[in-house]
Prior knowledge:
By secondary structure, the protein is an alpha+beta fold. Helix content is 20%, strand content 28%.
Amino acid sequence: MSGKSDTTNSDPDIITLGVQPKATTIEGIAVEVAAIKLLLKILKTSVDEKLEYGGVIYRDQAGPIKHTGPFKGESAIKVDVGHNKDNWGCPQESTPLAWYHTHPLQKIQTSNMGEVTGLWDSFIGGDKGLSNDSGLTGYLATGDGRVWRYDPPREGGAMVPQKDGRMKWAPPALGKGIWGPLNLALYKR
């Protein structure tokens, strides 16, 4: 299910999704709609397979918003969305705008056969680190159908030029991101 495609012209639209956008710009709303569509499309598979799925939303040079993935994760708690690749695995001429992934399970079996409950509806640890280090908004769909958004801290950070001419986010030294739901369980099993 990997690949890149235009996410701006597929149904349903934001009104059909029944979501009041949290983004405050036209591009931000388009990214949010793309994330919701991508996540709701892959969520059933993610839950059924008990694997995370994810990818990156980006703008190409011509302007359309596109995406990578969704890529299949290696477990219920890990997916490689391309963050270790150049430009987050997006074409070099493009600009990564956000990343998305699923948390399919509420309870996770531990290595000593115990269960850990919760945190599926949290953006912590590695998830938070990816957004904080890159300045990219992160989107998350949980197995109950909720879609969440995490905005990394912006105050004190800055875009800085790189040797190749591209700009890269330099995160602030301190700060707290903003986390919250975008919907009330749109997914039905």
